[in-house]
Amino acid sequence: MGDILVITEHLKGEFQDITFEMLGKAKELAGASGGQCIAVTFGNMNGKAGELGMAHSVVSVGGSDDFNPESYAAAVQSVVSAKSPSLVMVGSTSMGMDIANSVATALDITTVSYCADMSSSDGGFSVTSSMYGGKMNVVTDVSGSAVAMVLAGAFNADAGKSAGSPTVEDFAAETGAGKVRFKQLIEPEAADVDITQSDILVAVGRGIGSKDDIELAEELADILDADLACSRPLVDAGWMSKAHQVGKSGMKVKPKVYIALGISGAPEHIEGMKSSSTIIAINSDKNAPIFDVAHYGMAEDLFDVVEELVEELED
Amino acid sequence: MKIAVLLKKVPDLVEDLEVDASGKELDTDDIKFKLNEYDDHALEEAILLKESGAVDEVVAMAVDGEDVDKMLFTAIAKGADKAVKLTDGNPADSHQLGKAFSNVLESANYDLVFTGVQSVDDRDGQLGPILASYLHVPCVSVVSGVALSGETAVVHKEYSGGMMAEFEVDMPAVLGIQAAKQAPRYAPVSKIRQVQETASIMEASMGDVGSANGSAVASMAPPTKGSGAEMLDDIDDLIDVLKDKGAI
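^ Those are the sequences you sent over. The predicted structure of the assembly is below.
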């Protein structure tokens, strides 16, 4: 059984949580399969290699600190070619998506995306992918070499945080053809609300149906002294501003109470709100994945519930 | 300046999904398929670029199949100039799909290829970077916002927390579109009917799509309900929970 490569992610000089989430799991899998856990870092992160104590060693490919889809993928491809790992763990993230598929396709390696769970199995790995917006779990057996795209939040970051002094190998990696050039980071626009600081969030999803009906959720939020949040489709539809978006490309929130109205619970959304202290989900689809992470649920029409709730609370 | 937009149908998640008799595949007999929502954004972004004058031609492409003609006529009704359907094959995964599109695109002169950033069924990876790898052109995924300047595209790639990165990309290139600058438009049924009568869909053979990506599915099942949510019976119970948790 070969080694496990963990492709780290950093932004503004800090390793991102996905790095530690993967490291913890990689260490566990490597322990079971007899391989080693090797972290791959980019740019000038050698000074922080001590944070990657879970790794047996660190392969530092250098290059720019700023992520670049082309050069980072080229670097990973040369490391994978040199190390022949049995498993490469990459985040199912904005950065990971460019790296994983490019490397795996170029090297003709099996790719498994949306990994929510992984275990070592006879001579390989068993991977559970959360598919169809979280409505189906697909278990895949992989053997030989594989690239696993790991969903953010699937594994515990704390389990992968351990100080140590892994050996650091400076690796002369490929850098790509220079066809993609990083220009700048763009910070989110200043907004009138910071939902990461809210105690109570009333979050609306596609189930709300129309822009006008968001008013009803606003009424409830007013009564509860809560802020309004939403899932991605409402931002894409132009119904709410990006500052309200919870999930993968939006905000990570952990309010005391998160009330999800008409949100089905795709992995991209769950990633942003699963740490809320109490989650209450109202959705007419009793099979909606949101009910798996919610603490309390009502499988009823959200309009019926919210209208009645607003009436009761106004009295 | 020419953009190809790749369209694909995926199961509508509003439906109840069930596993077929093999225990490994989705039972597709009774479910509805719809255009992958990210592909819809890819199409919108391409049409917006055309309307801005930066692009001369938008070509919608899809693999032949049920209701694909209607999907392509709808794309024309929305503003695509042409539609091409890929025939003579049935790609089984993102890799074979990528091969099919690369076979057709490699000899055609496209400046940009837009795909939706992901789809709910792309278990073997996302089409954009896979296709780019076959075509040996650069790819940026999770893009919202494309501007064109000479031989390069300037794109915004989304990170988490509302952060974005700006990249300059030499064309030709593949872009995995997360969101268009505005919500995808609707085409009125009357317009689609009119297009069906006046426009035609071109056909291109997809050629050899190679082998599938190789991972073996052991099982497919809805997530096992863990402890799950405690289901509340009525508003009074809900109010009790809200009080108990300090929301009221």
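Chain A has a mean pLDDT of 95. Chain A touches chain B through 97 residues (CB under 8 Å).

Shout if you want it in another format.
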